Amino acid sequence: MNSFQLLQHNLVDTGKSQLSESVKLLLYKNDPDIFEKLDFERERIYCDPLFCAYFNSKEKNESDLSSIIFGYSDGNLYSEIDLESDEFGRIHLAGKGWIATAFKNQIFKLQQSKNKLRLFKEGNEIDYNMETCLIIDGTNIELLTYPIPLLKQYYYNKESKIIDVEIQESAKKHLGNLTKAYGLIKKHLPHHYDLIQNAAPKCVIFNIDSSERNSFADPAVQGVGFYNAYQEDYNEVFFVDDIAHQTGHAIFYLMLHDVQEILKKEVEVRLKDVNMTDNEKDDRTIYIWFHALYTYYTTFICLDACLENDVFEDPKKKHEALGRVAFYLKKCSHDLNLFSSGGPEIFTSIGLQIYQEILKKYLEMNNKWENLVFEFDLSNQPYNFTYSKFLELNPVKEETVS
Known about the structure:
Blueprint: H1 3-30, H2 43-46, H3 49-55, H4 62-72, E1 80-84, E2 90-93, E3 97-100, E4 107-113, E5 116-121, E6 124-126, E7 129-132, E8 134-135, E9 142-143, H5 149-152, H6 168-188, H7 190-199, E10 202-206, E11 224-228, H8 236-255, H9 286-308, H10 315-336, H11 343-346, H12 349-373, H13 387-393, H14 398-401
Parallel strand pairs: 9-10, 10-11
Antiparallel strand pairs: 1-4, 2-3, 3-7, 4-5, 5-6, 8-9
Helix pairs in contact: 1-7, 1-8, 6-7, 6-8, 7-8, 8-9, 9-10, 9-12, 10-12
């Protein structure tokens, strides 16, 4: 592990530790006896993204918190609890899975006795089916296969209106592609895979038009990778790209948990108000700009590892991966060109080290793949890379994929 990789791991570990301590304090304030129910030393519990989502909720439903606590508690100490089913009759238990009933939006009592869960409605025991959490093969990462009521408040569009998000069918359709993509990153970039698994232990595949919203990444739901599989032809190439990008958000949130260690400026300061170039019309904050640069970096290293190891046997998949490289080189170049001599003004020494590593990777990618991507025409690309449009202007050629 090189020095920059070690820096990332240290920053993420520190961020997770601080997050865990914050969750423990909030739980204790809510219930002084909480650590009789939850193992105080099991840090993984307190980094569950659902705790983060609950404590960041504007309107809290006690049943949401109870379902998380019960899922991680010792049943002998926490033997009965009131829970509410969702509009599909399901009850989610963190770390365990889903209880499926025939009763929608109903209150139940859940009891644990002799390692058996018993469900009661109005004093009568009822039958249910239990579906355990889906852990992606070869990982410790959970794919959320159904909607969770607690997360619905974070599914909003660009106008901040709550929207319906399809999850169940998308999870079924793309589980194979998602599994392949995580496996490729784990095999060919193990140090970064460890960061991903550490920072984003859960993920969701959803399907909405990207004009509504492309990603739901948010520090309020720290630890979830959100993958918008809205294009019909998405495959493992897309998921390598999007895992790198979306978990890059989660990693970055933890790395900048104490933002003053990275940035000298307040996070709300806008690019046009600091010593940058060509930024008169760019209204983004420094934080958002730096965030974007880091996700280009994570996407570069994952696509590069796959191309370097020639993992895409189908020529079209290699062609797509190269097209994505070209697409992000263009975006990254634009954002890097906004930066001039403002380094000491904007960054601490750690922040400058991160920036310089991003720049280094960009130059490396440009030098390594330029001969294969420099002729690509990206003029018809929308905000998100679209391979079908890329093919219209850039048909697969033998020399492109050799």
